[in-house]
Write a structure and sequence with these properties.
Layout (H helix, E strand, L loop, with lengths): L2 E4 L3 E7 L2 E7 L1 H12 L3 E7 L14 E5 L4 E7 L9 E4 L8 H5 L8 E4 L9 H8 L5 E4 L1 H4 E3 L9 E3 L5 H5 L4 E5 H7 L7 E5 L5 E5 L3 E4 L13 H13 L5 H16 L6
Parallel strand pairs: 1-4, 1-8, 2-6, 4-5, 8-9, 9-12, 12-13
Antiparallel strand pairs: 2-3, 6-7, 10-11, 13-14, 14-15
């Protein structure tokens, strides 16, 4: 079963307390390490202006690059080293949309499921989403990027705030599973057109809302946190890897929580 994972690769600056480091990032990047270990039949499709960024992926032969004229840049700052649930995030809001014409050239012959990782509203235009839905295969989607808009009270140019928008309901219609955190869930409300809604809440665990019930998942305690950037992306990939192997919602959530905890102990990826 070929899994196609799509979304930008990024240049990141991670600031923890008084320490800072430059890293490759983006949800598709973090997820590729999980899929490489737990779901080997995948293809990562990324967009950026710097081809060297794909050299950091676990298996370069499984990455297809859509070359654009800009690259997403993020600053992820954790002012309190003891509270990694709190993050200040800035972005350049690169406008480098992934188009239907970009994908038609590089898709494999057989596709069994998609994972979509928008980092802002420009990444997946409605025409692209409609094209991907036409394959009639499961689509797993992180929706954080769709909610991001520029500006906040501290930094109008690069700051990030979250906001719902009317077109989101059309985007979510027919999606298999969406992934978001508690703050984002409060913004968008109920998602009746989605089979599964997976809501993470950092050290407080997660919950999974399906047609039948709500399943609560405890966080796996981590006493030696090194780096929480990409932890939610890691959780998402681990959940999907298990779900595609027909595991139960509870088993998928517990597995994802365990893998996310392991990622917390490492700088960079899982």
């Amino acid at each position: 079963m070929t899994l196609v994972v799509i979304g930008p690769v990024t240049n990141d600056l991670v600031v923890i307390g008084n320490e800072s480091s430059n890293k490759v990032g983006g949800a598709t990047y973090f997820q590729s390490f999980v899929f490489e270990k737990f779901y080997n039949d995948y293809l990562a499709i990324v967009n950026c202006s710097n081809p060297d960024l794909i050299n950091d992926f676990p298996e370069k032969q499984k990455v297809k690059l859509i070359l654009k004229d800009d690259t997403h840049f993020f600053i992820n700052e954790y002012p309190d080293e003891q509270n990694r649930d709190y993050r200040v995030q800035l972005s350049n809001f690169a406008q480098i949309p992934i188009l239907k014409s970009d994908l038609e050239k590089i898709f494999p012959e057989k596709i069994d499921a998609f994972v979509l990782n928008p980092l802002n509203r420009y990444d997946f235009p409605p025409e692209t989403i409609d094209y991907l839905k036409s394959f009639d295969v499961p689509i797993f989607m992180s929706i954080q990027g769709f909610l991001r808009i520029p500006g906040d009270e501290l930094n109008e140019n690069y700051g990030i705030k979250l906001s719902n928008f009317d077109e989101l309901s059309d985007i979510l219609e027919g999606i298999t599973s969406i992934f978001l955190d508690e703050r984002e869930a409060n913004i968008i409300g109920e998602c009746s057109d989605v089979d599964e809604v997976i809501i993470t809440n950092g050290s407080h665990g997660s919950r999974i809302i399906s047609k039948d019930c709500e399943t609560k998942i405890d966080a796996v305690k981590c006493d030696d946190i090194k780096d929480s950037t990409g932890c939610g992306d890691t959780y998402m990939a681990a959940y999907i890897a298990k779900r595609l192997n027909n595991s139960s919602i509870k088993d998928c959530g517990n597995f994802a929580s365990k893998i996310a905890s392991e990622k917390l102990k490492r700088f960079g990826h899982y």
